Each structure stands twice: as C-alpha cells, then as structure tokens.
Batch of 3 targets.
Target 1
Amino acid sequence: MSIPIADYVAMSPVLGAMVVSLLILTVEFLIDAGERVTFYVSLVGISLCIALSVYAYPMNGTAFNGMVQTGGYANFFNCLFLVSAGLTILLSRSYLEKENINYGEYYCLIIFATIGMMLIASAADFIVVFLGIELMSISLYVLAGFMRRRAKSNESALKYFLLGAFATGFLLYGIALLYGSVGTTNIGSIVSRFSGVSNSYLSWAGIGLILVGLSFKVAVAPFHMWVPDVYEGAPTTAVAFMSTGSKAAAFAAFLLVFGRIVEHNQRLTDLLSLIAAASMIVGNVIAISQSNLKRMLAYSTIAHAGYILTGLAAGNELGREGILFYLTVYVFMNIGALGVLSVIEREEEKNLSYEDYSGLSQKNPFTAILMAIFMFSLAGIPPFGGFLAKYYVFAAAVNSNLTWLAIIGVLTSLVSVYYYLRLVVIMYFGESATAYSNTVSKTCIAALTISALAVLGLGIFPSTILSLTRQLF
C-alpha cells in the first residue's frame, strides 16, 4: 500500500513528536548526565511540533487510508497537548532535582504520553483511539510511580494501573460490541449509522461500555475513585500533566464519539446530564473537607469534568465550542495551580496543606499573586478565563432546555468558592510560620507567568480561541 507524501505532511506534528522521543532516548543512552541535554531537546522538540501543528492546521481531511483525521480539530488539540507538555517540562526540572529523581526518562515519558494524546484527537477509527489511549496510559502509569523509593508513589501507580486496565477493558469490549452491531470501527460511519441501530440492545451495550471506559479517563463520578489517591502519591508536576493533557485527550474522544449522537438521542442526553450533575456535586462537596491541597485539587478536577460534560450533554454547537474553550483555560489554570504547589512543596511531601501556605504573601509575594489568580479562575470569578469557560457550558445547557443542570452547576460553583478562596485568605491574612524557599528557578517563573497571563488573557479576549473553535464543527 503506497501512502501519499501529503499524508506524512498532514501528520507531521505526531511524527515529529515521535522523532523527538526517540532522540531523547538516544541522548539519554549515549551521554552521561544526559538529563540536562534531554530537558533542552524536549523543549526545542515541543516548540517545533507546535509550529508543525500550526502549519498543518488548514489541511482538513483524512490520512493513512482513512484511519486518522487531519487539520483543524486534530491540530487544535495537538497544540493544547504540546503546550501542556511544554509547561510541565519547564516546571519539572527544579522539582525533579529537589526530589532527587532527575532522570532523563521523565521527559521521554511525557513526550510518549503526548503522542498518545495526539493520536486520540486525530483518530478517525476506534482502533487508533485504543492505540492512543494505551500509549498515553502506560506512560502515565510510569510517571505516577516515578518516585519509586516512596511507598505512596508506588501505591499511586498500582491503583492507576489496575483501574486504568479495567477502564481499557470496558472500552475495548464496547468497541467490539459496537462493531458487531454496526459492522465497522470507523467513527464517522458509526455516528452516521447509529440512528438506524439505536433500537438494538447490542449497540446500546457497546455505547454504554465505551461511555464507562472514557468516563474513567476523564474522572467523572461515579468513575472517579482512583483520582485523589493517584494525585496525592504521584510527582506534583506529573499530576499537572495528568490532570490537564489526559483529560483534554479523553474529552477529545468524547466529542468524536458522542458529539453528534447526543444531538438526536434523549436517552443519551439524560445519561450524560446525570453523570455531569453527580460529578459536580461529588467533586465540590468532598473537596471542602480536604486539608491536603493535592487531594483538594484532585476532587476539583472531578467537579471540572462535570462542568465540561455539561457542554457535551447540551448537544449543541455552543456546548461543543464551550468544551474546547473550557479545556484551553483549564490547561493553563490547573497547570499553574499545581505548578505553584511544586515550587512550594518540600521533600517528603511537606508544605502541601492549607496551613503551610499561611502568610505566603509576606515571604513570597510573586508566587502568592500567581496562586491567587489560578484560584480565582478555578472558582469562576471574572475577569479570569474560568468565568467565561463556565458561562459557555452553562449557557449551552440552558439553550438545550437543561436549565436544571445549569442551576446545579452554578450552585456547586458557589460551593467551590469556599475551598478555593480559603487558600487565598490564608495566604494573605494568615501568620507566616512555614519556611519557604525564596529561590524559584527561571523555568518555573516562565511557566507560571505564561499560565497566569493566558488565564487572564482568555478571560478578557475569549475570541482568540472562540474564533478558532467555530470553524471546527
């Protein structure tokens, strides 16, 4: 089978990331203390892949015999994954040195996971979705247990692996049942033919199992059990990548599979609405009782997955555009919040409680300002991007007569204000009793500043993203 050169050009962001990952492996193998070199190779490689994604953005179509889609949708997500990976790498170098786990394999695993995410967003066939999810998941399992001398990190990786394997089993079995019902694994063909087999128990069983498998990946209730323990034990910078890149990738798959089906299927709308409501309630209510900030942000991600799923349940164009805008803002504000945690955190998981941040503004005012920005955005307070992100998905729900779901979203957002702003109050009005490091690496400052400016910029100029998303559906 001959493959046109145009297919390779259209898929150049993914192929470029593969070359970068292999180059990192080679450097790490050949050069002593290669972690410094791999750090720079990773950043340069990610920058080049972002440039390739922008170049290939207009090339809409399919490639490799219809197995992958190219152009706008795929490359929008490619840029999102690569930005998430790049910010994570910028934050990671000083963190890895502080935790004595500064190995070049860390950067290679991030690139491998990013390739998996890019395959998911580019998928035109369920086989490619499965391959992408497996590549992403296996890399993240290893990252979760990267602090292998620490029992909690090993526990984190094991829990993530076991529940992730179950989720993959559900997904694969669902694909098999849907293939048996429709006769193809091509996503576009399944979506177009689903109305003709919507009365088949086999097709509904397949859709149900795929929904369960993807729900595990985005961590919506009641498939969220693994999140707090995994996030608590994993390296903080790895958590920043897991909670943003992998969630965006899973929602990219959600949109590909369910984005059109939900428009004409009330049963699926009701099911997605119930899951979204449960996630918003469970995530926000349990987050209130958390004293560990990593666990608080873990439950926060469950709540935000519910907000994003609200846009999908709406089943309209505004909802789909709102999801893409929400994911963009979420990448910056969540990486920023966890990035600040990685800067303040000390060896052996110290400085991770609310009390440890008491009086931070007195000792480290710049870091405190950045953390306040991220907390305000996560809470949905204007003029930050988190406010508009919630507005678009809730407005989409109202437009689809899901006003009750939007009301639950608003009320649970009010609940979240308590635990987000509690941290801000402690930082600015508490008495400082904790020793903080006054030295923050330049790479960390760069990553946190970029994230804060993006959160503020997207809140003031949302059209920078919305003008792109309107062209994708």
Target 2
Amino acid sequence: MNRNHNTLLGPWIRRFLLEHLISERNLSSNTQCSYRDTLSILLPFMADKIGKPIDQLTVDHISTDLICQFLQYIEEARHCKIATRNQRLTAIHSLARFIGEHCPDHIGWCGEIRNIPFKKTTINSLPYLEKVEIDALLASPDCTTIVGRRDHALLLFLYNTGARASEAAQVTIADLELGSSPAVRIVGKGNKVRYCPLWSTTIQKIKGLINNRKPSEPLFLNRYGKQITRFGIHTLVERYVNRSITKMPSLAKKRISPHTIRHTTAVHLLRAGVDINTIRAWLGHVSLSTTNIYAEIDLEMKAIALEKCKIIGKDNTIKWNQDPSLMEFLHSL
C-alpha cells in the first residue's frame, strides 16, 4: 500500500470489510451487515461535515470530535437508543484497531479513537411470558390451513429451542435429527454450532412441513415458497400476539418479539429444575453470566426461595441492652 493509500480512507474501508471481517475474523453475516451499515451512515455524515467528496476523505478526517458529533447525531436525529449508539461505536473502534495494526503511522490516531467511551445504559428487565400466555400464543394460528400449520410449527419451534429469529430462519431440513434422540442443529452467533433436543409435539408438527422436500431446503418457508427471513418471523410473532390479546389481555402490556419467546424458554426451563449450565448450552450463550440473568428476573422462583427462608415461630431475640450477662460484662470494663 503506497503513501496515498495509507492516507485515503476508502482503501482501508474496503480492506476492513472484505479482508478483515470476512477472511480474517469470519464474523457472522449479521455482524458484517451491522458494521457495513455503520460506515454507510458515517461516511456521508463526515463528507457533509468536512465538505469533501467521500472518495477524498482521509483517515485523519475521522477525529474524536467528529465521531462524538456522529454519535450524538445517531441518538438525536435518528432517534436511536443508547445500545444502538454503542453498537455503532463498536464498529468504529474495530475499524480504528484494524488500521492501527496495519499502519504504524496511525497508531496514535487509533488510540485516540478507541478511547472514545461507550455510554452507560440502563439494563431493562427481560420480558418473558407466563405459561398461560405462551399457551394462548401457540393456540392462535388456525391449524386447519397450510399457513396456520406452518406458523404454529414455527412458534412451537421457537419456544422449544429458544432459538433467535435469525437462527430459526437459517435451519434447513438436513439440520433435523429425527431418530431415537430427536434434535436440531442450530448455527448461532460467531458460527457456533449447538444441538437442541426437540419435543415429540414439535417433531409431529415439523414433519408436516418437510414431506417430499429436499434436505438442503430451508425448514421454514414464507408464503412465496422462499426461505423466511428474521424480519418475517418478527412480523409473524407480532401478528399472532395481536390475535391473542382478546383471549389473553395481559399480552397487551408486554412488548413481545421472537426474543421474548427465547427468554420465556429460559425461564420455564429454570422453573422446571434444569440446571443453569444446561440452559446456557441450550440457548448458545458463550458466558454463564448471561444465562444467570434469568435466575435474577424470575419472581416466582424468588418467592419460592423467600418462602423457604421464612423464619417460623416467635422471635426470641433479646435486645443487647436487655441482656443481663452482656450488661454485667460492659459495666466491668
């Protein structure tokens, strides 16, 4: 890379997206899209602020002040949450680290960019459904129709596996193991593979979807016979939540998405006595600390634990100033 290429931002971004993210890091397609989207927003913002065409932007144009303005723009003008703001900053940090590692001339600049801090965000309680609520949701599709049977199978699959929407969309028929120990192969974040057991009810519903189809085909198809997308799964869940509200009004008070069903799976497994490490493997969490969140949010289990710790009987505790032996000792000092 010549001196001009060391300075121009364009060649660095091309190498970052095509070489680093794909060849070197092998990041998931969702992460690649997230980083690409960040740069597609950042570059026009920079060009407008600096007054130069995008192809003439240099590495030094990415200043800490400009990045801080960009992050403020993300929150205020685009009305993004702090979590999204921090996600965009993660992509910028990664780009700065890549440039700094490959060009010593930019090490100082890299350090300045990577020192831009993440904004602290409040951690909201994770929403999940009670058993009667998930039962109402599963009962909402009309199983007398082909579409209804597919939707019921998909909702049941999400609850059974705790899969993310993107994971469920990528499952193929070949990923199913329907033998003596039925399970499904799921590819999660970072292309990490896990196997999740399937209930007999789930298998029964899925078998109705895979008759005379090739193993390489996606398990869940949309109305056009193509692979369903994660956005399609989100829309599907929202549609059946709205249908279920009349029979289960409590659903209207909750913001429900496919990820809510994932949380529900974790909480219900925990209530059933499944150990936390098994749940971690079930959901595909890298860290056990992530799974421990479910133990903290489950009010029912907290109430049970509190009941077990409840002190039964009369409180025979003596106040310190009414204990004769203690007072006698204190007076002797």
Target 3
Amino acid sequence: MKKQFTHFGVVMITAIILSACASPTPQTIVQTQIVAGTPQQIVVTATPGAAAATPLPKGSVQINGAGATFPLPVYTAWTYAYSYVDPSVIINYQGIGSGGGKKAAIDNTVDFAGSDSLVTDDEYKAGKDLQMLPALAGAVVPIYNIKFDNDKDIKPEDRTITLDRETLTNIYLGKITKWNDPALVKLNPKLEKNLPNAAIYTVRRSDGSGTTEIFTRALSSFSAEWKEKVGAGSSVEWPAEKAKLPAGGGRGNQGVAAQVQLTDNSIGYVELSFAIQNGITYTKLVNKAGKTVTANGDSVNSAMADYADGFDAKLTAVIVDGKGEKSWPITGYTYYVIHMQNMNDCVKAKKLLDYMTWTLTDASAAQRASDLGYSVLPDAVKTQVVKKLGEVTCNGKPVLSKP
C-alpha cells in the first residue's frame, strides 16, 4: 500500500503536550518530521499565551479552550469563520486530548474545554458546576497500512478492506494476529490472494483520549469478552500488548496516523475528519444490522437517530453500535465543557456563549461541520443545548438575555 502524506514531501505532525492551555508554564512540543519514510523528532518549547505580550486590539476578548483532538478540524474552521462574525473575539483552542481539557476546565485555566470522554462523577465533584453540552457527532474509523501481495493486480475499487464487529475486536484482543486469517479472507474474498501472511501491528492512542473512549465503548458493545476483560475508557490495558504481540501507541490522531503510515501491516483508529483531511484509507464495517457501511455524515446521522431519546439529565449519551441498517457503529458525540455559575468575567462569558450558540444554530457553521465529515445535532437535541446555555450565570445573573 502506498505511503500516505508523500504528496506533502515533508509532513509536520505536532503533538502538544500540556496540562492547561492558559498556564504560563513553558510546554513541550514534539514535532515529527517524516522524510523519505523516516521519522525525525524535534523537541521544542512554547509558552501558551506568549502572543499576549502584544496587546490585544482595544475592545477585543480572548477566549481560551483546550481538549479533544476529535473536533479540532471543525473548531479550527469555526474559529476562522467566526472572526468575520464578531471580529472582537479571538478564540484560541488547543487540541491536547479530552483528559487534559477536562483537567483544565476543573482547574479554571481555560474558558471552555472540548471532550469526547464523559465527565466522571469525581470530575463533576472537583469541577463543582461543570456542564457537558453536545456540540456535534462524528465517527471513529479504523485505518490501516497493509503490504498487499501482488499489489499491482488489485483493482482500485477492491482496495478498501471490510471488517465486522467481531474481527475488529479480535484483532485488538490479540486473537486474530495475521492479515490472511480466515475471518479476514471471508470478509474480503476479492483480496484472498493479496492479504499477506504477515503479523498485524496494532496501534492505539498513548494519551488519555475521548477517541479511545468511543472506540473501546464500541468494542465493549461488540464483544462480551472485551467488556469483561478490558472495558471502556479514555485509557485501557490493551490485550495485544499484554500478550507481547506487535503493537505501539501514538499521541493524538496525528501520532496514531504517523505510526500506522510508517509501519507496514498495521491498523489503528482515528477520527473520521482527520482521515479525510489527510487522505488516509479507512475500513468499511459490518454493523449490528449486518449491513456493510462506510463512515460518513449519513451513517453518523443514523447512529444519532438510533439513540434520539438517550440523553440523560447531564445531556450526555452513548451512541455506539446502533441498530439502524445505515448506522456507523463507532460513533460518538463531542462536547463543550463549561462552568454554569463559576464565570466572573461577564463580558467574556457573553462572548463565549454567543460563539457557542452560533456554532449550534448557524447554517454556515453546520455546513462547515458537514464538509469535514461531522454531523450536526438533531433539532430536538440542539433545543436542549441552547436552553441549557440560557441557564449559565455570571456573578449570579443570566449571561444571555431571555428571548
């Protein structure tokens, strides 16, 4: 399989490692250059907020956010577009992982966090007045780099492999260890002579990750064995690694993608829009209804519809492994995490909530999300989120005016 990213010549994959994006403490940035298939790491330091040394334009407000890399592509697109909606707002969002984002929200070092991982009871207690708000939904997709036998004989339309719920789980359980395993050949009959007798190298996130939580929640639904032995979470003990099978980890979507692209016969998982933006091949999946589906806006929308009434009092819901015939089985919401009463800068609070309202309700914001492979919230969910935003207070007073 042809190496990805080669059309860039040199690719810079940056993993930002920090505990809170608004902290003045210098933070480590590991930049991985991929040159002629060889990774070269450069470690540099950066101080968040260093740009603040230059005075902000008069009347402007800087809003700091940090957290999940899952929504980073659309947050970047929204931030750019919103600079034309309200030029006085400067939004700085850093993709550091859901775990880091939730910690930053608890520590009050950011104005909002992004998380695909649900806030735990202990985190709610530590954060005092935290609230999760669904922003949109997206898919997690298995990506792969297989060195096919007789590669030149494969038709372009036959190159995308198909997995089902059992085979994907068994790969990560370490029960399927070769690419030409009979279960994989059965799912991909046109590739029977091409799937190599090569060990499968599994790749996972090395950081606490909402993407991992969505992925492992899906595996827990696919397999009683996985649920019992491993479970779901932002970080788990991976059976293939415990069995000392070929395996590795990468930080962030970019780290997993780099590991897969540089390792022959490997498989990993990333957020769909990251795969789309970087031209990375991802699998099809046979879903719970027995239908082969591709991850896209329609299959994510179908997954949301399967759980339309599944929100709890905290506005959270798990939407993996839906029963719909069109549903992508590894799907999840990404959330804003904010404080409901603990906002003291009322001007900034108003600007933040105006921005969030725009992302949820503006047609152009929705189109940008769709173009990147995300699915916007159904009207019934959106109404609940907007209503909850109206309950946010600053110094004891509602931030948003009543309609």
